[in-house]
Design brief:
Bound molecules: 3-hydroxy-3-methylglutaryl-coenzyme A, magnesium ion
Oligomer: single chain
Helix content: 40-55%
Number of helices: 12
Distance between the termini: 40 Å
Number of strands: 8
Length: 301
């Protein structure tokens, strides 16, 4: 394998958990990321602003970002209403999000796993009609904040159903970042028996510092698509204690160091992360960003 695809989820998964983030800050982040060579940016969510106020006004965000050719700007759409709003502002791709845990599904989208899959049917149909590709997320693939361990069979079942419904890619989410490499690899291997490896993406949160190790383990299975968030932003509003996603800078640094081309300019990526962190008044959790920024400060000083 000599190429990997990175799906940048910082503006969505990252910022959905940042209290007080403004629309202008969200737009500035998407625009900065658009200059890094990233080809896929999940820019927002068309969800209820009562549930996730940080993602409000996604229509305005999509109308105001400076879209770059060759970059796919996508958004989460949990229901038909979300999809219709997303289509009205010309999103390039949408994502439905289900879970392998009943309790998480209830807390996150207020319905059972089976109900969610039914709710996605009209979303899939309308997206197909509009020629917009749909990604499918499965949350809690390596553990649930409410139920603890999750059966691999349940992960396989939900992933397979989403794939059969027409999702072009299934992103397997370790929502609370509890997975370890051998467990992650076994889970992915089980899903890969039902969904082609080329249609799988991995979405690791880094709560327990295992995300990069999990990526490395799963590269051995032939996975080439990974979700990450610049500066390691993020968490999940419905998973207490879940920290940010795997940091994009760390992922790019490791993959490029292994000779795997990501197409991403690390310098530009670090600067995009530093900019949003400055405006949120926090430090990037990315170790690579911290090292890069320290080195450049040293040079300047
Ligand atoms: P509900 O309450 O069951 O649905 O919410 P409802 O149809 O009864 O609607 C409730 C209210 O929301 C109504 O407003 C609707 O109009 C409004 P009210 O009458 O109370 O004023 N509404 C909407 N507004 C805007 N856009 C919409 C929309 N739909 C309804 N599309 C719903 C169901 C799914 C909408 C709700 O539960 C929700 O928005 N949940 C948010 C879920 C979310 O965004 N979670 C975080 C993202 S998932 C994640 O982070 C995991 C992931 O990263 C992978 C991983 O790490 O595992 C993807
Ligand atoms: Mg997530």
């Amino acid at each position: 394998m000599n190429q990997a695809k990175i799906v940048e989820v910082g503006p969505r998964d990252g910022l959905q958990n940042e209290a007080g983030v403004t629309l202008a800050q969200r737009i500035a982040l998407v625009d900065a990321l658009s200059q890094t060579g990233l080809k896929e940016i999940e820019a927002g969510s068309f969800v209820s602003p009562k549930w996730v106020p940080q993602m409000a006004d996604a229509d305005q965000l999509f109308s105001r970002i400076n879209r770059q050719p060759g970059v796919r700007y996508s958004a989460l759409t949990p229901n038909l209403r979300g999809l219709e709003s997303a289509l009205s502002v010309g999103v390039d791709g949408v994502a439905v999000f289900g879970a392998a845990s009943e309790s998480f599904s209830q807390r996150n989208i207020n319905c059972s796993v089976a109900e969610s899959l039914e709710r996605f049917q009209p979303v899939m149909a309308a997206a197909r009609e509009a020629n917009v590709p749909v990604r499918g997320y499965v949350s809690c693939v390596l553990g649930c904040p409410y139920e603890g361990d999750i059966e691999v069979a349940k992960v396989v079942e939900v992933a397979q159903t989403l794939y059969q419904m027409g999702c072009y890619e299934i992103s397997l989410g370790d929502t609370i970042g509890v997975g370890t490499p051998a467990k992650a690899k076994a889970m992915v291997a089980a899903v890969a028996q039902q969904v082609p490896v080329s249609a799988l993406a991995l979405h690791f949160h880094d709560t327990y510092g295992q995300a990069l190790a999990n990526v490395l383990a799963c590269l051995e299975l032939g996975i080439t698509t990974f979700d990450s968030a610049v500066a390691g932003l993020g968490g999940c509003p419905y998973a207490a204690g879940a920290s940010g996603n795997l940091a994009s800078e760390d992922l790019v640094y490791m993959l490029e160091g292994m000779g795997i081309d990501t197409g991403v300019n690390l310098d530009a990526l670090v600067l995009a992360g530093a900019q949003i962190c400055r405006s949120l008044n926090k430090a990037p959790t990315s170790r690579v960003a911290q090292a890069w920024l320290a080195k450049h400060k040293e040079k300047q000083g």
